[in-house]
Specification:
Helix content is 34%, strand content 24%. By secondary structure, it is α/β, with parallel strands linked by helices. The structure holds zinc ion. The site of zinc ion has 4 residues, from loops.
Length: 544
Amino acid sequence: MKKFFLFVFVGIGILSCAQKAKVDLLVYNATIYTVDSKFSTAEAMAVKDGKIIDVGKTADLQNKYEATGKLDAEGKFIYPGFIDAHAHFFGYGSSLQNADLVGTESWGAILDVLKKFASTHPDGWLLGRGWDQNDWAAKDFPTNDKLNELFPGRPVLLTRVDGHAAIANKKALEIANVKAGDKLIGGDIEVKNGMLTGILIDNAVGLVRRFVPPSTEAQTKKSLVEAQANCFAMGLTTIDDCGSGFGSVELVKKMQEAGELKMRMYIMLSDGTANYNWAKKNGKLKTDRLNVRSFKVYADGALGSRGACLLEPYADKPGHYGFLLSSQQHFDSVAKVIYDLGFQMCTHAIGDSGNRTMLKIYAKYLKGKNDRRWRIEHAQVINKNDFNLFGDYNIVPSVQPTHGTSDMYWAGDRLGAERVKGAYAFKQLLQQNNWIPLGTDFPVEDISPFKTFYAGVVRKDAKGWPTNGYQMENAMSREETLRGMTIWAAKSNFEENEKGSLEKGKFADFIILDTDLMKQASEKLLQVKVLKTFVGGEKVYESK
Ligand SMILES: [Zn+2]
């Protein structure tokens, strides 16, 4: 017996002095949701050189490792860092520099925000973003009369929350030389009684926006750093930026190399000749923090502004079908270019016709089962006969649960009772490939991943409406929703072997939450707080 104790004692002594492996960080005393294939939990995690080298029990890992940094999680809850599979990081950054019109409840409230904003930002274009007439008592589009009165000499452009419509004042329309009766493809310039109202839909917004002077590199950098800080505070550690130019890619790469930007980025190049040429010349770009191997294409507009392309007319606008933003030949030809480059195609498609058009073009190139992971962004309204195309061709629906709960008040008006059943059908889409990436589309929606989680699982607004949830046959389970925000989002970026779960060999991108997302009462999910955020084992956020 004595001999046995001696043996054990010596054994521990050797382990603790000579054989304990050195690590940079030991996290312990936690409930770690690893989000591995078994959805297992652990207590502790060892990190070295930015990666996880071990996951297990607190006592075991404390015995095995000598850590430079120790983090006692005090019984809190650790999850993989969230991945937003669909966002506009640059757009969000620049929106932080413009008048914030999100949540304004009337046209008058917008004018008040602008007056205040203009007094502190006196020069150049007056830009704002985030208004939504569906939130107002009077749900009609506004006209620009008051903008012309308030700002006669200063151009004003206010983008709608979905980015697919805007209102411009007279000065801005003059600069852009937009006239009543002008026609264009994939857009609409609203005219009432022969006069421009200032409302611009889809491609018409670009007629004015192209005259807005581009921000300087210093301004862009500042906006990205601000965007990053807000994202880290929400537990986001990877952002999919859905559609930027190669210049933005190069800026992000430069900032990441200089340590100015720590966010991991998956950047989709926008559908444009210069970007295709860049991709042909450079091929795919992959570093630990940056992945560029896809193109973002727009099939149609948004449902709110009736730009989404439908198979049958809008229920609340007879004879109006919405429209495709480019010709079918264009979509077909870029699909071929993208396929030949070995890149991923990611297409914004909202209406059932927009979706069908793209699904058929995808099918033509993908031919059958494949691992190209071509994505349909939003996949918002799907005809009941088209769901199977996602599974048959392994097309990835990339969806945003908060779109469902933002649009639920009026989606039925646009689509009618029957057609709306195929809208925001996340569960049905998940079942096509048995996985689905989730995102927010910020700044169209708020950046908060907790809102995504709540909308995905509970399908109610923040006030708990509707009582029984919206089209609950399409609610996802908590596990599915969490997977959609982590490992499945990583998979949609071809990154499931390096992130999205807390397993040996993966990046130590993780967050500590104050309460357990998997067990917290539904009505309290929106109050869950991030305590700390880590990227590659480095703390990038801590709550005050
Ligand atoms: Zn988007």
